[in-house]
């Protein structure tokens, strides 16, 4: 009997390659999300520090120009934080799209792998049956020779 050959092996390999590629893209998207979260946290910390500095300076007496400068910096931080949050949301949506693509690719790969396992099981069953028949024929031939 011939060696087992899965006819869709090239398709399976291609699907696995696509799945690996999508998984890499998903990992990169998650890394961008984490990086943006860190950037956003740094901005928030800078905003808190500036606010604390402003409060301390107000308590010690502050010139109007300095107060306006602090307020301007605080507003700039607020805008940057708002923009960073928008960007974070966008990156999270992109990461979710990549995750969905990975899930779909995994389903396709898994279905082909199950089909391959099923075909291999059928092959092994047929191979065992052919082995049994060969053994039975051999035994019959030996008995026929012994009786002759």
Automatic annotation (TrEMBL):
This is Flagellar FliJ protein. Its main location: membrane. It is a peripheral membrane protein. The lineage of its organism: Bacteria, Bacillati, Bacillota, Clostridia, Eubacteriales. Keywords: Bacterial flagellum biogenesis, Bacterial flagellum protein export, Cell membrane, Cell projection, Chemotaxis, Cilium, Coiled coil, Flagellum, Membrane, Protein transport, Transport. It holds the Pfam family FliJ. One of its GO terms (cellular component) is bacterial-type flagellum. GO terms for biological process: bacterial-type flagellum organization; bacterial-type flagellum-dependent cell motility; chemotaxis; protein transport. It is found in: Cell membrane. Belongs to the FliJ family. It comes from Flintibacter faecis. The keyword Phosphoprotein does not apply. Residues 19-118 form a coiled coil. InterPro entries: Flag_assembly_chemotaxis_eff, Flagell_FliJ. The keyword Cytoplasm does not apply.
